[in-house]
Amino acid sequence: MFALADCNNFFASCERVFRPDLIGKPVIVLSNNDGCAIARSNEAKALGIKMGDPFFKIRRLVEEHHIAVFSGNMALYGDMSRRVRWVLEEFAPSIEVYSIDEAFLDLRGLLVEDLDSYAKEISRRCQKDTGIPVSVGIAPTKTLAKIASKLCKQYPKLRGGCYMHRPQDIEKVLRKYPIEEVWGIGRKSSRKLHNRGVWTAWDFTQMDESRVRMLFGVTGLRTWLELKGTPCIQFEDSLEAKQSICVSRSFSSEIYDRNELTQQIANFANDLTHKLRKQNSLCAELVVFAYTNRFKEEAPQAYHSTLVHFSNPTHEYRPLIATAVQALNEIYRAGYGYKKAGVIATKLMDAQDQLPSLFEDPQHTERDHKLSAVLDELQRTYGRSSIRMATQGDGQIKNTCENQSPHYSTRWEDLPTVKIG
Amino acid sequence: MEKLQPYAIDDSSSWEGLLVGDVKAGFPSPADDIREKLDLIQLLVKHKASTFFFRVSGVSMVDAAMDEGDILIVDRSLDPYNGCKAICFIDGEYTVKHVEILEQQVRLLPANEHNHQYQPIVVEPEQDFLIWGIVTYVIKKM
Fold first, then answer.
1. Does residue A410 lie within any of the structural domains?
2. Stretch 316-335 of chain A: residues touching chain B, C-beta under 8 Å
3. Domain-terminating residue out of A163, A186, A202
4. Is A175 inside a domain boundary?
5. Between A400 and A244, the higher pLDDT residue
6. Does A342 lie in the same domain as A293?
7. Can you tell me the mean pLDDT for A74-85?
8. Residues A307 and A364 in one domain
9. Residues 101 through 130 of chain B touching chain A, CB cutoff 8 Å
10. The CATH number of the domain where A351 resides is what?
């Protein structure tokens, strides 16, 4: 059995953990530069705010209904995501972090009598320990577990957890489940299926195996089998040897200056992106690290590193370089002489498997995509150093984030305050 | 902060002066195997997923246990027990309360016993406040 734990309205829920006054009220979170809505509480959804709505379009609605608006606070969301992961790790021998707000749990070999209670208990613990509401679906395959977790969101009486395994139950659910919402079925495939009169997940399972293979290849067949209860999507826990790419460098003399180190990291990220693109991989996690010279014993020593998840795996230059620089800013400490630094891309996936993104402004994604193509072309023609991002310091990556909440759980200056009463 | 794991190396190309290689470099130090040290986090944070920090502010009266500027270590995973100090969210703000669990009811008393401006609150279901977490340690600058 597999479980999928999916955080409900994750970014909005993170904001509410520290703002209990917003429980039951509409909350939205905006993308970079306050462009568009990327997370909505249920109340905001009910008011008709759609994923990706540009802010200017919904401004009136926001004012009219006193919707709480936040600029994305990735430090907070990353920290809360880690906490949820730590809770989940207590419930399964291995977990696969799929995105910032989703993780699969491998329950094979686990002796649990009542998996329905187990699902509810996982959800209860996540909520209690971290404050984040989490929907936990348990089913024979990863694809079905995803569907089971969706059910928990639809039906509050499931108390956040649901075990879906009896064939008749699965059939009942799949008959109502729109095919385009099935994990692994992209927009193009859904169109093809709609054209053939396939509207629900159940319709799809009733198709002929050879026809599925012909129309959608091995990937489609995998989804077809998974919906029929045969697990065939690999479980990728973090213990497995991962394909990864590292670009790092030892400096001839120690670097103390933040800007200088930033430039180095930006260059590493540029080269890393190039390598990713060459092998057509997307990167889901980026590690940035910086070490002092440990042979200079009299100098202060530091081994700083940090890991960033991409909710949408990428191989575009701009997001990768910007993220690497941002991550460096998080770990950089003045007064240390950094001798070695680098970036590592892990959790690589095939670019062909990319799903359309829900969380990002499609216009931005498109712009990044075009920019990358131009950079590739220029670097190919004029050499790698011919053109670079202008990451010459902090100024370049600053975002407008007018309504960003404090970094409650990751910055000492930002701790929530409490009075003694 | 994540620990670095050893990763596979991509050596498909290299650039002048750019080393593509393992994260670790140089000779191992003989002290590398000895990891004994005192770790404050280990002492103060029993459940890392559910432990958060709060800062005390706006204290008008000096209290023996908690003062302006102190950092409270708060564990969400614990259930309130008789005599504990809890972070409560009441009337739109966080307040530390002393929890009293009696046979028939649970009461929130002022955490500062010299403070008489707050009445005890009887905890009942369907109320407009919540117990956010339990205070486990106070970090105080002397």
1. no
2. 331
3. A163
4. yes
5. A244
6. yes
7. 93
8. yes
9. 110-112, 115, 118, 130
10. 3.30.1490.100
Whether residue B97 lies in the annotated active site: yes
Which structural domain, as residue segments, surrounds residue A345? Answer: 245-389
Each residue of A85-136: pLDDT tens digit?
A: 999 999 998 899 888 899 999 999 888 999 999 999 999 999 999 999 999 9
Q: What is the CATH classification number for the domain harbouring A79? A: 3.30.70.270
CA distance A287 to chain B (A): 8
Angle of helix A10-18 versus helix A74-89 axis, rounded to 10: 100
Does A174 lie in the same domain as A146? no
More confident position, A129 or A357: A129
H helix runs in A155-288, sequence order: 167-176, 187-195, 201-205, 209-227, 258-278
* Phi, psi at A114, each rounded to 5°: -115, 95
* In a domain? residue A130: yes
Q: Cβ(A287)–Cβ(A305) under 8 Å?
A: yes
Residue A29 resides in a domain: yes
Contact assessment for residue A274 and residue A387, using Cβ atoms and an 8 Å cutoff: no
Judging contacts by C-beta atoms under 8 Å, the chain B residues touching residue A244 are 7-8, 10
Looking at the structure of chain A, the number of domains it has is 3
Q: Which residues pair with A134 in a beta bridge?
A: A7
**Known active-site residue B85:** no
**Which residues 107-146 of chain A have a CB within 8 Å of chain B?**
125, 128-131
**CA–CA gap between residue B122 and residue B107 (Å, rounded):** 4
Are residue A182 and residue A271 in the same domain, yes or no?
no
State the Cα–Cα distance between residues A9 and A134, nearest whole angstrom: 9
- Interface contact flag, A420 B12, Cβ < 8 Å: no
- On whether the pTM is more than 0.80, the answer is no
Residue partners of B113: CB distance under 8 A and separation at least 6: B98
Q: Tell if the CB–CB gap between A244 and B54 is shorter than 8 Å.
A: no
A125 and A204 share one domain: no
CA distances from B120 to A143, B72, B117 (A): 51, 22, 10
Dihedral through CA A176, CA A179, CA A180, CA A184, nearest 10? 130
| Same domain for A310 and A383 | yes
Residues B40-139: name the CATH superfamily.
Umud Fragment, subunit A (2.10.109.10)
Tell me the shortest Cα–Cα distance from B101 to chain A, in angstroms.
18
Question: How close, in Å, is residue B14 to chain A by CA atoms?
Answer: 9
Cβ B94–A130 below 8 Å, yes or no? no
Residues A140 and A206 in one domain: no
Residue B22 token pair: 């393992």
Angstrom distance (rounded) from CA B140 to CA A237? 41
Residues A119 and A156 in one domain: yes
The pLDDT tens digits for B48-103 are 999 999 999 876 555 557 888 999 999 999 999 999 999 999 888 899 999 998 88
Tokens 């972070």 belong to: B87
